[in-house]
Amino acid sequence: MVTQTKPRRGLIVGNYCHDLILRDNLILAQALGGAASFISVILDGLNIPFHLISKVGPDFSYPTPTHPPIVVPTSQTTLFHAHFHSHNTPSQRRNDRTLNRVGSCDPIFPNDLPSGTRFSFGMAVGVGGEILPETLEAMLDICDVVFVDIQALIRTFDPEDGGRVRLVDLKESGFFHLLPRIGFLKCSSDEAEFVDLEEVRERCCVVVTQGKEGCEVWWKDGGEVRVGPFDAVEVDPTGAGDCFLGGFVSGIVEGMDVGDAALLGNFFGSLAVAQVGPPKLDLRLFQMAKDEMHKRKMQDFPYLERRHDWQGFRKPLDQDQFYASLVATATNTIIVSQIPEPGWNLLNSPKAVEQNNVKARLSLNSVHEESIPSVDGKP
């Protein structure tokens, strides 16, 4: 059993929402959405304490979550329609989703944040434009380190196109001046098109998720590490990046170095796509993952002790054993699926294959994050 001797309480800011998922114009599912709903599952499962600020309307359709939202009587719950389209060619599949914000709740203002409280870490994870520059600045004032999902900063919503979600360049977002105060900025490979990575990495650590290729972590002075993927049987890619971020932040908060935290993020991101909505994972999986995190942290401990901080920037030690232990964790625990199908399993039987001559992988289908179009038509 792993015990946390020094709890690190966090602050998560981002609205819950309703997600309607359609494929070829047929409703596939309705689910609780919003990055905060996915991230809270991971942090709760790993016993990372946090306070959550989220807003919904009186129409909020789900039982009161463990972390209840603020109900705004005069607003509605943010609603997204995710339209998936069946295509045959790889180039068509790359842009097989259109995302529309059909309705939106009130933004989260600085005075909605707890007053007189300091947090070890914060997470700005808006999905519908609910985080304002002044709100992020207030978070930076009360949190020791802040993790930001770039979708909270660069998304726009076209009212003349049904609330179509588009992306703008980070420099045009109104948030760029805050980068030197941000600890970690997470973006997908598609969102990275709107970021000058060489410039931004000198201001904060940048984590770029690359779907079936894993992820890369960039920091100042040329520091960079690529971390391999875990593949998964894909049912719904919504929330993969959110669960990645939940795993990544958990690893950092628990004292792991950045490379190992990124591998943990890849692990939870891969599990997320096998279900619709926030993942339901067996508690034994979380306990086994915590045990493996603790073992790995002990390998990192001398390095982190010398650094006198808990944000270890370095090339990770050989990750083969940590990777294999997480694979075993998934294959040896029961996964509770929201949409069981005959013969469906989250993970197939493990099969050893070579990845860069060092890493064993699961023989699973690929995981990817869906792209969002830009305001100027960039891919």
Looking at how many chains there are and whether they match, the oligomeric state comes to single chain
Strand content: 15-25%
- Count of helix runs: 9
Instruction: Tell me, rounded to a whole number, the average pLDDT.
Output: 80
**Spatial gap, N to C terminus:** 47 Å
What is the gyration radius calculated from CA atoms?
19 Å
Helix content: 25-40%
What is the count of β-strands? Answer: 16
What order do the SSEs take from the amino end to the carboxyl end, as H and E? EEEHEEEEHEEHEHEEEHEEEHHHH
Structural class: alpha/beta
Task: State the low-pLDDT regions, or none.
Answer: 1-6, 88-93, 302-311, 334-379
How would you sum up the global shape? globular
Major sheet characteristics? 8 strands, mixed
| Major sheet strand order | 4-1-9-10-13-14-15-16
Per-chain topology:
Layout: E1 10-13, E2 17-23, E3 26-33, H1 35-45, E4 50-53, E5 55-56, E6 70-71, E7 78-84, H2 90-94, E8 97-103, E9 119-124, H3 133-142, E10 143-149, H4 151-154, E11 155-158, E12 164-167, E13 184-188, H5 197-200, E14 205-209, E15 215-218, E16 224-227, H6 240-253, H7 258-272, H8 283-307, H9 320-331
Parallel strand pairs: 1-4, 1-9, 2-7, 5-6, 9-10, 10-13, 13-14
Antiparallel strand pairs: 2-3, 7-8, 11-12, 14-15, 15-16
Helix pairs in contact: 1-6, 6-7, 7-9, 8-9
Structure description:
There is one protein chain. With 379 residues, this protein is an alpha/beta fold. The protein is built from nine helices and 16 strands. It has helices at residues 35-45, 90-94, 133-142, 151-154, 197-200, 240-253, 258-272, 283-307, 320-331, and strands at 10-13, 17-23, 26-33, 50-53, 55-56, 70-71, 78-84, 97-103, 119-124, 143-149, 155-158, 164-167, 184-188, 205-209, 215-218, 224-227. The strands form four sheets. An eight-stranded mixed beta sheet has the order 4-1-9-10-13-14-15-16, sandwiched between helices. A four-stranded mixed beta sheet has the order 3-2-7-8. A hairpin with a 2-residue loop joins strand 2 (17-23) and strand 3. The longest helix is centred in the C-terminal third of the chain and has 25 residues, at 283-307. Residues 205-277 form the Carbohydrate kinase PfkB domain. Pfam families: PfkB (PF00294).
